[in-house]
Write a structure and sequence with these properties.
single chain; mainly alpha
Amino acid sequence: MPDNTKYDKILDALQALLKEKSIGTISVREIAEKAGIGKGSIYYYFSSKDAILQALVERDYRKPLQTAKALARQSDVSPFTRMAMIFQACRNSSAEFREKRETDASVGAPEKALMHQKYITYLIAEMKPTLTEIIKQGIAGGEIHFDNPEALAEIVLIVLAVKLDNTLVPSTAEETENTIEGLISLLEKGTDNPPGSLNFLRVL
C-alpha cells in the first residue's frame, strides 16, 4: 500500500523547490533529496517529474472540487440548480488558484504559467463527467433538450474555466459578465428553456 506520508513529502519537496528554481532545472534526484527519500522511491509513486507537478496541482484544488461534485450529485435538486453549483465551484476554485499563485512572489512566471495550464486541464477533466451526467438527467426528465450532453458540458466548462480564471484572456469585470450572460443565453436557447429562466445563474 502506498505511503501517503512519502507521497506528500514528494509533493512538498517540489513545491519548495519551485520557490528556488525553475521547473526545467529541477531534477527528480533533487526532489528526492529535498523529500529525504531515495530517488528510486519517487518512481514508486510517480512516473515522471511532470506527474509530480500534476499531482501537486490536484492536491491544492481537490477539496473544493470534490465538495462541488458531491453537491452536484444530489439528484433530488433541479439540474439547473446543480449546474449553478458547477458555475460557483469554477468561480471559487479559480479565485483560490489566483490568490495562491499571485501572492507567491517566490515562484517565477514560467512556473506559474505551467501550473496554471495544468490547473485548467484538471478543472475541466474533473468537472466534465459530473456536468455531463447532470445534463443527461435533465434530458431524461424533460427539462433539457439537447442531443450531445458531453459537448455541451465541455463548452460550458471551457468558457467558465478560461473566463472566470481571467489570466489566459484578461478581461474587465464587465466583459466577463457579458460573456457569462451570453453563455447563459445560449444555454437557455440550446436547452429549449424560455429567455430569463436561468437568470439565477447570473448572480452566483
